[in-house]
Amino acid sequence: MNLTCIALRTTRYSDRYDILAAYSREIGRVSLLVPAGSGKEARRVRALVQPLSLFACVADVRPTREIHPMSQCTLVGGSSAAIGANPLKTAVAMFLAEILASLLRENQADAATFDFLEDAVGRLAATSAVANFHICFLYHFAQYAGIAPDTSTYVERRLFDLQNARFLDTPPLHNDYLDPDESAVFHSISRMTFDNMRFFEFNRQQRAQILSLIMRYYTIHYASLNSVKSLSVLQSLFD
Asked: Which pTM was predicted?
């Protein structure tokens, strides 16, 4: 089967093979068997499937298998090279790929999700406004994760209910909510897009606070994100 995929995470399987977790346009989440070690083909494939790389391959997909052998791996477009050549973009790609590896669990195709990811990879490759990219990505990916905030309920000085994704006049009957100032900050990034994100000027502390709020929101709905390893690295990179 011909697949177009976005690489998420590679883990060791044996001395000869690794398992690549990827998200494909054709069948959704997929586990691919790729060569490991220091051989020429292993090095070539490893270079092509870095986090968030967009690649095409042929996979021997069978219903009885959980892991599918892969061959004929090639890059799609020039996005991967542009991301890999920039250390900041590489760090952002690693962080987002780690999040996506936890969130994208369904073994079924979702064209809208793949289209968003494919566009986002191209935007990351092309942008010079790297510092805000992950914030913009996570806010808008909430729609595809099924947890889009209801911004229509926002009124100044309201509280944001993290569990129910809406703004309230009074505190809910639980502790998972943002105070009015935090809620205003959270609402402000709803206006951020990949086209205008360069105009949002934050210092390191503000950006770390915003990312912390977004990650708190995500982890309430997806507990698996509590163990994201690359978060602390990303928070230290941007002034």
From this structure: 0.94
